[in-house]
Fold this protein.
Amino acid sequence: MTTGHSSGLTISSPAVGLDAEGLRMLARERLVHGPDEHDGDFTFNPEFRDWVYSRAVKPAAVLVPVFQRDHGLSVLLTKRRDDLNSHAGQVAFPGGKVDDTDVSVEHAALREAQEEVGLEPSHAEVIGRLPDYYTGSGYRIAPVVALIDNDAGVQANPEEVDYLFEVPFAFLMDPANHHKGSRSFEGKERYFLEMPYEGHYIWGVTAGIIRALHDRMFA
């Protein structure tokens, strides 16, 4: 496995100085897509495209929670417990499978965020949605972007989440912080993005969704 190294916030980030209202306006303009547009693990592994599509049959949704802090916009992430059956120990957005009782993927993302980090849906303003993200592990993920009230109380659910942390939105939107990593899979090298930040290893699907958000908002 290869890994990159954390780099700091630089002026190359297109999100430097962006506030909540600016993000809201950008989302209204940029987070529009057709039903046949998709992102996924195949972005850096085009030879896996058909394989990923054939496996990605389980619908899921994640919330990309963005806070307006004094220092600027900030994104909440979770560190999953090391003893979970699925994606153990990984950095992730709050989210999970879409249930039959969910009226929409937005509802599913907010429900999962409430379960995992205690975020009340009334404190979240959904401002857009990215195209579905197809994963090699068999999920079709709907990433839902939301602005979160600063007074919203969040707390890790100890049954699923080890801890919570925030990353400056401008850091995540800076391509200088998007590093290419690789792992061997069934005898072939598979590539993915990684975004190390202050000891946290953001990679794989989470990093891929972050990059997809960058490409939609700023590319």
Notes: Residues 20-218 form a domain with the Nucleoside Triphosphate Pyrophosphohydrolase fold (CATH 3.90.79.10).
